[in-house]
Amino acid sequence: MTAALEMRGISKSFPGIRALADVDLEVRAGEVHAIVGENGAGKSTLMKILAGVYQPDRGTISLEGEETRVSGPIDARRRGIGMVYQELNLVPDLTVAENIMLGATPSRLGFVRRRRLHDAAVAVLDAFDARVDPSAILGSLTVSQQQIVEIAKAYAQRPKIIVLDEPTSSLSEHEAQALFHIVRRMREDGIAIIYISHRLREVLDLADRVTVLRDGRRIETRESSGLTAGEMIRLMVGRELTDIFPKREVPIGATVLEVEELTRSGAFDEVSLHVRAGEIVGLAGLVGAGRTEVARAVFGLERAQSGAVRVDGVEVQARTPGQGVKAGIAYVPEDRKRDGIVPSASIKDNIALPVLSGLSTGGWISRFRERSLAREQVDSLGVSPPVIERAVDTLSGGNQQKVVIAKWLAARPRVLILDEPTRGVDVGAKADIHEIIGELAAAGTAILLISSELPEVLAVSDRIYVLHEGRISAELGRAEADEATVMHAATGEAVHS
After folding, report:
1. Cα(70)–Cα(55) distance, rounded to whole angstroms?
2. β partners of residue 12
3. Which CATH code, of 3.40.50.1820, 3.30.190.20, 3.40.50.300, 3.40.50.2000, is assigned to 255-496?
4. Global pTM?
5. Whole-angstrom Cα distance, residue 274 to residue 297?
6. Which of 278, 341, 368, 474 could form a disulfide with 489 if both were Cys (CB 3.0 to 4.6 A apart)?
7. In whole angstroms, what is the distance from residue 242 CA to residue 432 CA?
8. pLDDT digits over 424-453, tens only?
9. Taking CA 297 as the corner, what is the angle to CA 257 and CA 413, rounded to the nearest 5 degrees?
């Protein structure tokens, strides 16, 4: 059978960096071919070459057996290559139908043919059994629905090859099932699907074959049947990682954080929880259940209408993040690029931000103390490369996340709220970040952990609160928590049982 795509001997270098070295990739029509590897392994560079964003230094691309040169993204689309990037590329103020048909809007004499536009979008959505209103404004949809629209837009172009880059990174495992149905439907249609994900379990469930990249080289391509997550990790990182989410047993102390009947209309209602010193408490639930909104209200980013927050028994009036920090609360947000870092600023400047007043005398910042603090945090957390003057946006995702954590650790918080701390980072960085979390718990920090990756929550939490539609639907001890129990509570089934 002729492969839908063959990339042979692909090499690409940037100033001072060899991104790809003689990489081969073959993808067949009607298969899901996963590409896995740590951040910086070359996955994105390889896909940008396929999309025509970059031109390779060496190597060839063949589509259906015919060697070709992809001159740019428009040429890629014309040749039947569809790209769905991790960052959604949609227009929030347009309707679902208008987004799906972007670039191919039916018109006559300069006027949009609304009926044909609507019918074309409905046909695409029906092909996926997607329950999305084509006339709805895109910005009113949930993240998972917008992800479906993004894939539908690519599918509407009748591609022969579709690249899905981290399509479930913003979805809970429950919501990801709808996306998997769409991927399988596209596979039945004979589309060649390239699937990039750090979630190894879904790779094994979905992919027919898996290609592993490491340090810009193809390490191996294997059939997924018989392949284990442990083997993939060993191939990806070149070493054994026996426990991606290590759980360190530490003494649990007195209650540090108390949240009592916290309410904000339309977001969450009468949420009560507590976290003790040295304890890691998971906050689970589907996307949209109110997890992030609760975290932001506790920290002071959003104002609750009623309820109370206490740290070490003292009520906190956290109406601004500054007040939250002063009370001993730190918050690592789910979107590190938008809310967690100043991308163009240096590692040193980012780490110093929450504690500038403590580094100043008479309004003047002590550059020596600023550098010493940054050096201490970078060495402690293993930020790589350990160059404190380097801009944060030049680091890998995992190292950017370490900088966000370092920034808040410099403030020495009593309570650390971690919202999706390992989203979009590779397995090596996940293990590093969880080692850091374990050390913080051992030092007596009270940790509230939010994650859409259920195995992560189950593995590291001492207790778990589950949110359903803005309310706590279950509180589970470590011994009684499993995936089925959490999902029952997250979907509301436990509420009515």
Report:
1. 8
2. 20
3. 3.40.50.300
4. 0.63
5. 15
6. 474
7. 13
8. 677 777 788 888 889 889 999 999 999 887
9. 45
